[in-house]
Amino acid sequence: MNFTSYLDTPDFQALALHLMIGLEIPVHIFGAFCILFRTPKSMKSVKWSMLNLHFWSMGLDLGVSLLTIPYILYPALAGFTLGLLSNFNVPLSYQAYLLAVLIGLLGVSIVTILENRYFLLFAQERWWRHARLPFLAFNYIFAFVYFIPAYYYIPEQTEALREVFEMLPELPQDIYSAPVFVLATDFTYVVLPVFFMSNLLVLESAAFIVLIYGNMNERTKKLSLSRHTIKMQKTFLRALNIQTCIPLLILMLPMGYLVTSRIFNIYLQSANNLCFIIIAVHGLSSTLIMLYIHTPYRNVCARIFFSKITDYSRRMSSVSTVL
Fold first, then answer.
1. pTM to 2 decimals?
2. For a pLDDT cut of 90, what percent of the chain falls above it?
3. How far apart are CA 190 and CA 111, in angstroms?
4. Pick from 63, 75, 295, 297: CA 20 to 30 A from residue 237's CA?
5. Looking at beta carbons, which pairs linking 159-168 to residues 24 or more positions away fall under 8 Å?
6. Where are the beta strands (DSSP E) in the chain?
């Protein structure tokens, strides 16, 4: 049996993600430049937490689009990789663990930036100043270890491969001869750690958002913060929420398909490939939104890019006039 479409093939997956990384790297570098050298004094307190979020967002993009390039035979938890790490014969179990850790660290970086806002605005003189470092340390350590149960229970590959190929429809011969790796035949050891980690991060993020807005409303009523300060902080928080929420909404598209695919046992390789391409778009979209939604960075982009467009238009007009 041959591939029914080019979208089904490993070649398409590799080409698409190679093109993505060619676009992502310059955008991410420019985003890091803006954070490091164009962050104004009014945003100085959030500079390093924003850089931390940007770093892990960029890390996940590089992990998917360059280091691993996953080719997954979902709804089976099996597949192989086409990325740089495979060229250096890094075991697929290590590559799967790397992606899981990068996803966890990205989530923790979102919690970190929200915690940073809450601490600086409202908790510098409260008990939280003693608890925040252990709290943050726990989150980062947990991001590194939460996937250990899935890694520990990786099945014996010969029997696991037999089960996977029996579950899936007839596959192209190229897939049977590929170095297919089975992460798990029992979804429990993968789903439970991911479910626990994701719910923990969602609850922590929601808690800090509620605390920030609750304290802000309380101080507004007491007039302990100026209206200008309140307005400035609300504007920044709104921008931060947009910066984090829109990329997360983008991630919900492939996640929704993967859940549906598992429930109804649907195997569409082209859809599996597109899921990871969408996941790779996450970091790029986060950086582009950051550059647009925060006024100082938007102004930098306008000065650099629009001025060049204007200069080019003027030169072309001059040439036309001469002719």
1. 0.88
2. 59
3. 23
4. 63
5. 160/78, 160/185, 161/78, 164/73, 164/76, 164/78, 167/75, 167/76, 167/265, 168/73, 168/76, 168/267
6. 70-72, 77-81, 181-184
Three-state secondary structure string covering 162-193: HHHHHHCCCCCHHHHCCCCEEEECCCHHHHHH
**DSSP per-residue string spanning 186-219:** STHHHHHHHHHHHHHHHHHHHHHHHHHHHHHHHH
Q: What is the pLDDT of residue 320?
A: 37
What's the rounded mean pLDDT across residues 289-307?
86
Q: What is the mean pLDDT of residues 158-183?
A: 92
Whether the per-residue pLDDT at 65 is higher than 60: the answer is yes
Burial call 111-149: b when 16+ CB within 10 Å, e when fewer:
bbbbbbbbbebbbeeeeeeeebeeeeeebeeebeebbee
In the chain the first and final C-alpha atoms are separated, in Å, by: 61
Measure Cα distances from 56 to 4, 101, 106, 240, 241 in Å: 36, 10, 5, 16, 17
The two beta strands, 181-184 and 70-72, are unpaired
Number of other residues whose CB lies within 10 A of the CB of residue 202: 14
Q: Look at residue 165 and tell me whether its pLDDT is greater than 50.
A: yes
pLDDT tens, position by position, 128-158: 999 999 999 999 999 999 999 999 999 999 9
**pLDDT per residue as tens digits for the range 107-118:** 999 999 999 989
Angle between helices 188-222 and 92-118 in degrees, nearest 10:
10
Is 80 exceeded by the pLDDT of residue 248? no
DSSP single-letter state for residue 80: E
DSSP string, 57-74: HHHHHHIIIIII-EEE-T
Average per-residue pLDDT for the chain: 87
Phi, psi of 227 (to 5 degrees): -65, -35
Count of residues making up the chain: 323
> Does 91 sit behind a cis peptide bond, omega within 30 degrees of 0 on the bond before it?
no
Domain 6-306, CATH: 1.20.1070.10
